[in-house]
Amino acid sequence: MPVAAREASIYTGITIAEYFRDMGYSVAVMADSTSRWAEALREMSGRLEEMPGEEGYPAYLSSRLASFYERAGIVKLNCSGERIGSVTAIGAVLPPGGDMSEPVAQATLRIVKVFWGLSAQLAYRRHFPAIDWLTSYSLYSEKLAEWFRYNVGEEWNDLRAAAQRILQEEAQLDEIVRLVGHGRIILP
Predict the structure, then answer these.
(1) Tens digit of each residue's pLDDT (9 = 90 or more) over 126-140
(2) How are beta strands 84-91 and 26-31 bridged, if at all?
């Protein structure tokens, strides 16, 4: 796609989603690669001879990403008493070489505060969805703790913490098995 089309695509997608939201639908928008969109933004910024920011991206990269994600949400439509619509925005970040410290990934993580890390190893083992529980996280868990305690169960937070410890221990044991081999492990 031409650079201008790639740069405009994310806005076109969210605008179409808002159109259907305003009709009373619940819409999910998946931005296939906000990294490619940001690269187009960087290229357009360079052509306009704007002052580059970190790694050549424009200084306003974070605000443009935020303006995309902030358009998601639930609205009560004025035209029809009880009718509501919603937009859920899901952005895929594909940093070069999987480097999560690059500007697009870091700006996205600061804005959305939720990260689902996909694992090529899990996908290779046909484990779908290939969400890696060790790299994925949510910064909303503490804010939602009371809701889960009331709506799911009193022990929700303790069980969640225990499950995370078990998954971390499983990953450590799996690493040992890969290093040592299957037949050489002696358990106490």
Answers:
(1) 988 888 888 888 888
(2) parallel
CB proximity list for 138: less than 8 A, separation 6 or greater: 113, 114, 115
Q: Where do runs of H (alpha helix) occur along the chain?
A: 3-22, 34-47, 61-69, 103-112, 120-124, 141-151, 156-180
What confidence tier does 183 reach under pLDDT thresholds 50, 70, 90? Answer: low
Domain count of the fold of the chain:
1
- Closest of 42, 52, 48, 45 to residue 104, by C-alpha: 42
CA atoms within a 13 Å half-sphere pointing along the CA-CB vector of 74: 4
Residue whose pair of structure tokens reads 């990260």 in the numeric block: 115
Q: Which of 93, 127, 123, 126 is nearest to 109 (CA)?
A: 93
Q: Which domain holds residue 73?
A: 3-112
Helix (H, G, I), strand (E, B) or coil at 178: helix
- Give the Cα separation of 182 and 188 in Å (integer): 16
Q: What's the farthest any 2 CA atoms get from each other in the chain?
A: 70
pTM, rounded to two decimals: 0.76
Query: Do 83 and 77 meet the contact criterion of CB atoms below 8 Å apart?
Result: yes
CATH of the domain at 91: 3.40.50.300
